[in-house]
Amino acid sequence: MSSRRSRSRQSGVTRISDDQMADLVYKLQQLLPEIRHRRSDKVSAAKILQETCNYIRNLHREVDNLSGRLAELLESTDGESAEAAVIRSLLV
Amino acid sequence: MNHHVPGFQELEEECSILDSSGFSRPKRLLPTGEEDIMELLWRNGQVVVQRSTKRGGEIEVPAEHLTVRGIRSTAEEQHLFMQEDEMASWLQYPIDDSSFDRDLYADLMDSAAPPPPPPPFQAPVTAIAPPRSVPEIRPHPAPSPPIALQAQKPEFSPRFQNFVHFSRHPCRQSIEPISKPLATVARESTVVESNETPAVGRESRTSLVDFRTQTNTDRGAAALNAPGTSAGKLAAGTYELTVSSSPGGSGSSFSASRKPHRQTRKRTPAGERKRKIREADDNECRSEENDYEEDETKRQGHLLTASSSKRSRAAEVHNLSERRRRDRINEKMKALQQLIPRCNKTDKASMLDEAIEYLKSLQLQVQMMSSMGCGMVPVMYPGMQRFMPAMGMGMGMGMGMGMDMGMNRPMLPYPSMQLPGSGQPNQASPAPHMGAGFHIPTFHLPPVLPVPDSSRIQAVSSMADPMLNSLVSPDPNQPRMPNFVYPYQQFPAGLQQASQLPLPQNQAAAQPNTSKQTGNMENQPSAGRK
Q1: Is B113 helix (H, G, I), strand (E, B) or coil?
Q2: Would an 8 Å CB–CB cutoff place B368 in contact with chain A?
Q3: ipTM above 0.90, yes or no
Q4: Are B13 and B34 in contact (CB under 8 A)?
Q5: What pLDDT shows up at residue B484?
Q6: Cβ–Cβ contacts within 10 Å for residue B95, how many?
């Protein structure tokens, strides 16, 4: 672990313990739908990070889609209804 | 029969047999003790023996001369037989190869005039004599080193014949058949298939050299293996002589490396040899090439010991791979940072923390949006405030409060930070929002505002509690869904209810905070978003 810390030093990153990293990576893994079930102890951090990026992009896309649909829905509703307000609130 | 294990010197001696001086002598060990390397080269259509030590003096040994010398002696006949013995063992393995060998031996056996130029290989059928001898020899598959040595001699003659034959065939090809039996021995030592074959094209380096190098140990078996396979290959016309062998080319380097290579060869285990020999089938002269390559690899290790060099190389490789892995991770972290909005963290840990939160908020948002049709309003917990649009701040705050309180703790700082800033907000601002009832939950937050940052978390939880309580109490008939749902569920059902809720709450809570905080919260995200 000291090696890891030293490495982090070299990389210019503040020292973070291995456990910390592992914990964060694990949390990320839990959030990711695909990897979550894989339960393999050795899911590389790179892979998790990659999956996270992909997942976030997917979520972005979905948010955009949903926003579009919400916008359409909003148009269908009366502009002052509660639902409209809600929808508007949802929309970015 | 001499069953002593011939040393290198012996091998060399044997090789020296080719030397012009040694022709007249039985091909057996010549007490020359020279360390020079004898090479059977194919030049100008005939075999030439070239001694490494005496570069200047290329001894051109006519094939016939060699064969005659080496074979005719009666004493040598025994050797021949012994060699045949060895050869037999070779022959046992590959059948088709044996045909070739038989031919060779047939010539030997006959002790007739030097084998005619006609390709002996092409006359596998003629292997009449050899078959007799071969079967005899077969029973003695175990070739002793001396036999191997001796066997090499007779092989020479057939090889020479082959060489003559070679004159008609491309050097490569010709070399294969001959050197195969010999080369097989040589190949043993080196894993690398000698790439010398290409170089051999110019000068056919017979496996004579192989003899020298290989004959140390029970190459006979190995050699036997080789011939069979090599012969087969030869028949197949496959000349992978240089296929896998390193491009190095060989010639001079070969001879130069021969010595050290030989030594290394000696160390190679027999099994390894056999394996290599089979591989080396294609490379007749590969033995030399093997030497060369092996030497090359060894050269690197010569600086250090072989093992230490390997270790250092392994460590280097490990470092490189480790570095690559870290680079990959860093690169992914950067990409992640790009995706996360308003991420100004530089250290990995905090960045990952933010990534986790953002991911959660995104998931929530998507879930909410997708479930809009169900009448449920998406909830954004406090932590999401950073990522939520300004408009929805109030809602988000309220909605998300009850959703995942536990999870919100880390996120609390976000809203909390803003909350204190709100101070005593002007109540006017929230008014418009209050009408919508969006800020029901937010109203509860204000009470917490004054709480110092240190107790943010507690405040948030406390904020959530009152909110929850407030939310739940007014709508007992409402499904006990997560608190965040309540405020919005009220909207479709009865806006007035919602509006009523905040009113009392406003009175109860620090009204100014609500408006202010919403304003602040909105400001914050708006600042970020807009």
Answers
A1: coil
A2: yes
A3: no
A4: yes
A5: 43
A6: 11
